[in-house]
Design brief:
single chain; about 280 residues; binds ligand C2E; binds calcium ion; Bifunctional diguanylate cyclase/phosphodiesterase
């Protein structure tokens, strides 16, 4: 975009503008959708590896767009993050999840995903506290899942926020372990209550020696730091067997259940607990 560049510059600006407009159109759809009940929470079981019992649920957001149908969070969460709408959306998810969980007969835990922007907000701990007070959910039943991208930008700030959250009883899980830097120092510096191994490593854990080695060494490391590990993406009996043998505390994946609306989980959340 130099000598003959005025046109190029112009094109470049237009295409950037279009991309930005496409994002803000979806962002506007999201804002509209949130007001009109297009968003819904799905819940996916987290099970104790040895007993198989349900110990909690991860909360996963679903959006049914009036024209596009079901839009994956993989597609709309990044846009919500870029536009800042994640602050409002994330707040809604947290509040809605607490409102639901407090009504269950069985006091199971809920794990809610927190985007980097939410975590960076200095007002976030107080916001969580207010939601717990408003909804009446005991803090001990709430776990917040954070990713490394949410803590590497400003470690001291993130640590300060995490300490505040923990001071009133909320638990913190490190999500997608193994996909980021996942350095030893991160695990030592941050007081995580749980490590979630990313499903990329579980996928081929039975056949691939490297994946198996990564999962094993994560389990040994976590054990030495006294942090329980949950394996994501547990899809079959081979995965489960491996994780049982290696002493992984919890599992989550299609083997025990896909994410589902609460209407399909009534026996779990309100039924008589099995023995
Ligand atoms: P994540 O936090 O890593 O969530 C786990 C994803 O793995 C979910 O995808 C879940 O449906 C999927 N999954 C669970 N078990 C299995 C399995 O056995 N096999 C396979 N192949 N996949 C499995 P989902 O629901 O599409 O969500 C994708 C991502 O969107 C999440 O990844 C998370 O990063 C984000 N997300 C979803 N809901 C929220 C939310 O409320 N807030 C924020 N900030 N992010 C969210
Ligand atoms: Ca998660
Ligand atoms: Ca994850
Ligand atoms: Ca993930």
């Amino acid at each position: 975009a130099k000598a003959t560049g005025s046109n190029n510059v112009c094109f470049y600006d237009i295409s950037m503008d279009q991309a930005a407009r496409a994002r803000s159109a979806l962002a506007m759809d999201m804002r509209h959708g949130l007001m009109h009940g297009e968003f819904e929470l799905y819940f996916q079981r987290q099970n104790d590896t040895q007993s198989g019992k349900v110990v909690g649920f991860e909360v996963l957001l679903r959006w049914t767009h009036p024209m596009r149908g079901m839009v994956s969070p993989v597609d709309f969460i990044p846009i919500a993050e870029r536009t800042g709408f994640i602050m409002e959306l994330g707040d809604w998810v947290l509040r809605q999840a607490c409102l639901e969980a407090v009504q269950w007969r069985n006091p199971l835990c809920i794990a809610v995903n927190v985007a980097p922007k939410q975590l960076a907000n200095p007002a976030f701990p107080q916001r969580v506290r207010d939601i717990l007070t408003e909804t009446g959910l005991p803090a001990e039943r709430l776990e917040l899942e954070i990713t490394e991208s949410g803590i590497i930008a400003d470690q001291q700030h993130a640590l300060n926020i995490i300490r505040q959250l923990k001071s009133f009883g909320v638990k913190i899980a490190m999500d997608d372990y193994g996909t980021g830097y996942s350095s030893l120092s991160t695990l030592q510096l941050f007081p995580f209550d749980k490590i979630k191994i990313d499903r990329a490593f579980i996928d081929n854990v039975a056949e691939n020696r490297q994946s198996a080695a990564i999962v094993r060494s994560t389990l040994i490391l976590a054990q030495s730091l006294d942090i329980p590990v949950l394996a994501e993406g547990v899809e079959n009996a081979d995965h489960l067997k491996f994780l049982q043998d290696e002493g992984c505390a919890q599992v989550q994946g299609y083997l025990y259940g896909r994410p589902a609306p609460l209407s399909q989980l009534q026996d779990v959340v309100n039924g008589q607990p099995a023995d």
